[in-house]
Amino acid sequence: MTVRAKICGLSTPETVRAAADGGASHIGLNFFPKSPRYVELEPAAILARPARARGVKIVAVTVDPDDMFLDRLMATLQPDLIQLHGKETPARAHQVAERTGVGVVKALSVSEASDIAAAAAFEPIVDHLMFDAKPPKDSELPGGTGARFDWTIMAGRRFQRPWLLAGGLDPWNVAEAIKLSGAPLVDVSSGVERGPGLKDPVLISAFLDAVRRA
């Protein structure tokens, strides 16, 4: 099985280049203002160009986006996928897909096996499912906190849609995470940073190398 990788929360040309050079299948640009990885729409569109030219899928990471923002997002960035990382319902995910005409990734917070059941309601609607570690109770961020969950609870599961494993991954544990979970696609953000929001091209390359060898 060839495992693909998404590098999320990129904000500089150097890190976008490292992701594309290293073979990332997707990059994520974060539009949640409270995140240290937040980028404005116009700079994000410029950042995305070289990766898009090399066939890398562009993912717009959002948290409960309203229709006005979605319209601006499509006019400015034209992402391949919109990631919903908030409290969006299946009905809202359907509205987002209909309004934008692009694929939707729905992130689901997981701390135990029973949390995975929430995926069933989204499977007929979205293009991808993401299983991310439930953030600490005092966190203002829905993801990107470095938290992780028990990867073994994903083992052997089958879904109607491709799915991503996220939460606490880094260059040193991603091979184990792939082995234990069977994930076809992995997502990293804080695990390739030298500080909050500060992506490190060397760590990005190391993460992608580890995925390739897994």
UniProtKB/TrEMBL annotation:
Q: Which GO terms describe its biological process?
A: L-tryptophan biosynthetic process
Q: Into which EC class is this enzyme placed?
A: isomerase
Recall the GO molecular function terms of this protein's record: phosphoribosylanthranilate isomerase activity
The N-(5'phosphoribosyl) anthranilate isomerase (PRAI) domain is annotated at 5-209
Keywords (alphabetical) are: Amino-acid biosynthesis, Aromatic amino acid biosynthesis, Isomerase, Tryptophan biosynthesis
Q: In which pathway does it act?
A: Amino-acid biosynthesis; L-tryptophan biosynthesis; L-tryptophan from chorismate: step 3/5
Q: Which InterPro entries match?
A: Aldolase_TIM, PRAI_dom, RibuloseP-bd_barrel, TrpF_fam
Q: Name one Pfam family in it.
A: PRAI
- Record-listed E.C. numbers: 5.3.1.24
Task: Show the SUPFAM superfamilies listed in the entry.
Answer: Ribulose-phoshate binding barrel (SSF51366)
Q: What is this protein called?
A: N-(5'-phosphoribosyl)anthranilate isomerase
Question: Of which family is this protein a member?
Answer: Belongs to the TrpF family.
Record carries keyword Isomerase: yes
Check the record and name the Gene3D superfamilies matching this protein. Aldolase class I
Catalytic reaction equation(s): N-(5-phospho-beta-D-ribosyl)anthranilate = 1-(2-carboxyphenylamino)-1-deoxy-D-ribulose 5-phosphate
